[in-house]
Design goal:
One of its GO terms (biological process) is methylation. GO terms for molecular function: 5-methyltetrahydropteroyltriglutamate-homocysteine S-methyltransferase activity. Its EC number is 2.1.1.14. Pfam families: Meth_synt_2. InterPro entries: Met_Synth_C/arc, UROD/MetE-like_sf. The protein is of the alpha/beta class and 379 residues long. 35% of the residues lie in helices and 15% in strands. A six-stranded parallel sheet has the order 5-7-8-9-10-11. A three-stranded mixed sheet has the order 2-3-6. It has helices at residues 27-37, 43-63, 81-84, 125-137, 151-156, 171-187, 206-214, 219-234, 266-271, 318-328, 356-374, and strands at residues 68-69, 88-94, 110-119, 142-143, 145-148, 158-159, 192-196, 242-247, 277-281, 302-308, 337-341. It is built from eleven helices and eleven strands. The radius of gyration is 20 Å and the shape is globular. The chain has one domain (27-374): TIM Barrel.
Length: 379
């Protein structure tokens, strides 16, 4: 089944067959990071191993049909904490117990705390990470880089400073810090940026919205602050910088931490955010239906449907996936849709419960289905 909606193949990201960003860490890399943590491996040696494994990963992505390659987040332990702790005024800390439970499974006891005025001093390890990826990928390869949303600071950080009366007050410093850092990424060659933001799940259910109230905030007001933060950090971005946002409900060792459809947040997500597109989780019933897509009010917004799960190795029935894409097209034109896994394969270095071979089978499945829907070369 081939349904063409464009007369020429799509060459600009987001691609019709795309992915969220993280990949399973090879055993060699995991071992190296453990040895580094124990003091048995130098930073230089760890970096050399990371470089070699990222080079192999980039090659594998190309061979399996990926057009916008990432570094798999191979230099990170967490999808979000490593980046946020690189900002001024934010530190990592070890909690006495794990953070939020994922279906009863506790993650490692890591967290971030705000200890002073938040800022960006012009130096951040992720700038170097991007430059290295760009060099490894080569000039002829599209490169995607992922960073966590500023909303994670408000939603997840512990505040241990008198610099801010309320968590939301940190936005005054956080937004310009992000904007400056994104400018430095752009100057380093970044043209495809993805902002990962699990904090939007705070608005998906009455239970989660009540958590916000219990914390002293109004969810109906805070959701607009979330949108203003995203719009603020990308305001004034160059025309050739594509910015996507990814929303999911948690991804740790094939477990999730919350459920709920997009309906209660849809007007803001689809109607107020000024991103170029959204990677959305739709791999099972926890994500609800496609009806919230009716609130999309821009013809230039791409919605990447996360219909292929990274949490299980079994390949989805392609007829079912194609039918679901066409179902989504009832609410949004097919040319505004794309396909991807619902999340990365390793949001933390532990990774999900599947093998590397099964991981690449999932990627090939995405590419194959996308080419059937949008035509050869549409990936």
């Amino acid at each position: 089944m081939t349904i063409r909606t464009e007369t020429t193949p799509r060459v600009r990201a987001p691609f019709k067959a795309d992915h969220v960003g993280s990949f399973l860490r090879p055993a060699r890399l995991k071992e190296a990071r453990l040895r580094f943590g124990d003091g048995d491996l130098s930073r230089e040696e760890l970096t050399r191993i990371e470089d070699e494994e990222i080079r192999r990963l980039v090659k594998a992505q190309k061979e399996n049909g990926i057009q916008g390659v990432t570094d798999g987040e191979f230099r990170r332990s967490w999808w979000h904490l490593d980046f946020l702790a690189g900002l001024d005024g934010i530190e990592l800390y070890q909690q006495p117990e794990g953070t939020r439970k994922f279906q009863g499974v506790e993650v490692r006891p890591g967290g971030i705390k705000v200890t002073g005025k938040v800022g960006y001093s012009g130096s951040h390890p992720f700038i170097g990470h991007f430059k290295s990826l760009k060099e490894i990928a080569g000039e002829d390869t599209a490169v995607k880089f992922t960073i966590p949303s500023p909303n994670l600071v408000v939603a997840r950080a512990r505040f241990e400073t008198a610099a801010y009366d309320r968590p939301e007050d940190v936005y005054a410093d956080l937004i310009p810090a992000y904007r400056a850092l994104i400018r430095d990424l752009y100057d380093a060659g970044c043209r495809y940026l993805q902002i990962d933001d699990t904090a939007w799940t705070s608005f998906f259910t009455d239970e989660e919205r009540n958590r916000i109230r219990e914390g002293g905030s109004d969810p109906d007001a805070l959701i607009h602050r979330f949108a203003e933060a995203i719009n603020g950090v990308i305001d004034g971005r160059p025309d050739d910088l594509l910015v996507m946002m990814h929303i999911c409900r948690g991804n740790f060792r094939s477990h999730y931490f919350t459920s709920g459809g997009y309906e209660q947040a849809a007007k803001v997500i689809f109607g107020e955010l000024q991103v170029d597109g959204l990677f959305l989780e739709f791999d099972d019933e926890r994500s609800g239906g496609f009806e919230p897509l009716r609130f999309v009010n821009r013809p230039d917004l791409t919605v990447v449907l996360g219909l292929i799960t990274t949490k299980r190795p079994e390949l989805e029935d392609e007829k079912v996936i194609k039918a679901r894409i066409l179902e989504a097209a009832r609410y949004l034109p097919l040319e505004q849709l794309a396909l991807s896994p619902q999340c990365g394969f390793a949001s933390t270095e532990e990774g999900n419960n599947l093998t590397e071979e099964e991981q690449w089978a999932k990627i090939r499945h995405v590419v194959s289905i996308a080419e059937d829907i949008w035509g050869p070369g549409a990936r």
